[in-house]
């Protein structure tokens, strides 16, 4: 079964729009989960449908805790998105993952505690697998696009998602690096990746290293002005990488070979006669395929 590709890009800190879109238009999307972070920029690139959503809103309005993650994923699904790329800033726990490098994240440790993490709940309970929370097909494309853009890219890495907004203490930073084996740290990829899986969207995470967090003996404490300087110096690379994705993925896509687009197939536990009609109505875009 083939369908039209629609690439969605969720742009993080420092990335509030993408360039080169044909027939570009900012559109408003309402969702049963509230308003998304901002309007969504739609258009075409190399003949492929595109949607761009600034995660924190234009002007950086939403803190990592307050980003409306459920509304964002629902809005992208509602628009017809099939393939979602997160582009994020992150701190690095590895000497070789240096500021300016890109990391194609493939695993997460979720330390967030103040966010709504699921579309499901009382009245419609579902359990999806997140053993492999990112899509290898999209990660392949992201790696290839990074190489074509001429940036240093590391394939694979574990992203520690913290609640924020404050950065980590040195003790936390060392624990995440030495005991937990994490590679990078940020504040936003969770629950975003989990929600994308619940919505049966392929999801990949492209993390741009902006700093060494607070563990590095020669770099000291993470400093927002250093992060902003690195972001400014590298945002062109991020945009260049994104511009190369449509040519790599093409106008049409088959079923995901990893099953991201069928994640809900056997996930819903609540008996049909016990399901809450109000919750089912809210799940129309996210889970309509399996809930009917
Ligand atoms: C600007 S430093 C902290 C901020 O940047 C990252 O945001 P995003 O993942 O949206 O690029 C990080 O997660 C924090 O929210
Ligand atoms: N060191 C860090 N910790 C958390 N989020 C970040 N985003 C960029 N750098 C970060």
From TrEMBL:
<comment type="pathway">
    <text>Amino-acid biosynthesis; L-methionine biosynthesis via salvage pathway; S-methyl-5-thio-alpha-D-ribose 1-phosphate from S-methyl-5'-thioadenosine (phosphorylase route): step 1/1.</text>
</comment>
<dbReference type="InterPro" id="IPR035994">
    <property type="entry name" value="Nucleoside_phosphorylase_sf"/>
</dbReference>
<feature type="binding site">
    <location>
        <position position="188"/>
    </location>
    <ligand>
        <name>phosphate</name>
    </ligand>
</feature>
<keyword id="KW-0808">Transferase</keyword>
<feature type="binding site">
    <location>
        <begin position="211"/>
        <end position="213"/>
    </location>
    <ligand>
        <name>substrate</name>
    </ligand>
</feature>
<dbReference type="InterPro" id="IPR000845">
    <property type="entry name" value="Nucleoside_phosphorylase_d"/>
</dbReference>
<dbReference type="Pfam" id="PF01048">
    <property type="entry name" value="PNP_UDP_1"/>
</dbReference>
<comment type="function">
    <text>Catalyzes the reversible phosphorylation of S-methyl-5'-thioadenosine (MTA) to adenine and 5-methylthioribose-1-phosphate. Involved in the breakdown of MTA, a major by-product of polyamine biosynthesis. Responsible for the first step in the methionine salvage pathway after MTA has been generated from S-adenosylmethionine. Has broad substrate specificity with 6-aminopurine nucleosides as preferred substrates.</text>
</comment>
<feature type="site" description="Important for substrate specificity">
    <location>
        <position position="168"/>
    </location>
</feature>
<feature type="binding site">
    <location>
        <begin position="88"/>
        <end position="89"/>
    </location>
    <ligand>
        <name>phosphate</name>
    </ligand>
</feature>
<keyword id="KW-0328">Glycosyltransferase</keyword>
<keyword id="KW-0660">Purine salvage</keyword>
<comment type="subunit">
    <text>Homohexamer. Dimer of a homotrimer.</text>
</comment>
<feature type="binding site">
    <location>
        <position position="187"/>
    </location>
    <ligand>
        <name>substrate</name>
    </ligand>
</feature>
<feature type="domain" description="Nucleoside phosphorylase">
    <location>
        <begin position="7"/>
        <end position="244"/>
    </location>
</feature>
<comment type="similarity">
    <text>Belongs to the PNP/MTAP phosphorylase family. MTAP subfamily.</text>
</comment>
<feature type="binding site">
    <location>
        <position position="13"/>
    </location>
    <ligand>
        <name>phosphate</name>
    </ligand>
</feature>
<feature type="binding site">
    <location>
        <begin position="55"/>
        <end position="56"/>
    </location>
    <ligand>
        <name>phosphate</name>
    </ligand>
</feature>
<protein>
    <recommendedName>
        <fullName>S-methyl-5'-thioadenosine phosphorylase</fullName>
        <ecNumber>2.4.2.28</ecNumber>
    </recommendedName>
</protein>
<dbReference type="InterPro" id="IPR010044">
    <property type="entry name" value="MTAP"/>
</dbReference>
<feature type="site" description="Important for substrate specificity">
    <location>
        <position position="224"/>
    </location>
</feature>
